[in-house]
Amino acid sequence: MDPLLKSLRENASLTPAELSRRLGKPEEEIVEAIKKYENQKVILGYRTLIDEELLGVDRVRAVIEVRTTPERSGGFNRVATRIARYHEVRTCYLVSGGYDLLVVVEGGSLHDVATFVAEKLAALEGVVSTCTHFMLKPYKEHGVLMFPDDDPERLKVSP
User: What is the pTM of this model?
Assistant: First the structure.
């Protein structure tokens, strides 16, 4: 992967000047490369990872396993695209194994998520079954540990 993209993936808040110093390239070249990646839809957006628990934000998230019936001409694409368009859906993946899609949903309460699953998701044409797992506490998201680094305990490494 391009070192520029790797750096932005690790920390999207790096300025072009910081990226220039880090990568040893002129700042103008960094700015042009970022614009090119954005125009080509390689870079689709920028996100900030927030510890919502520290802010007292009450959001309920669930991971939902979805079994679908693939369509003759489009496979899983049409139903997956329909699911992904719901504003409650944060993530939607086609996966291998016992189910077809892995969907991450977010709502204001357990009831909101359950209602979404029952009334919208499970009712979609092509959805055969769903299995909902409510997420209780994040320990790591997008490669970032979600707890203070106050415990110096390291994982044991065996030879």
Answer: 0.76
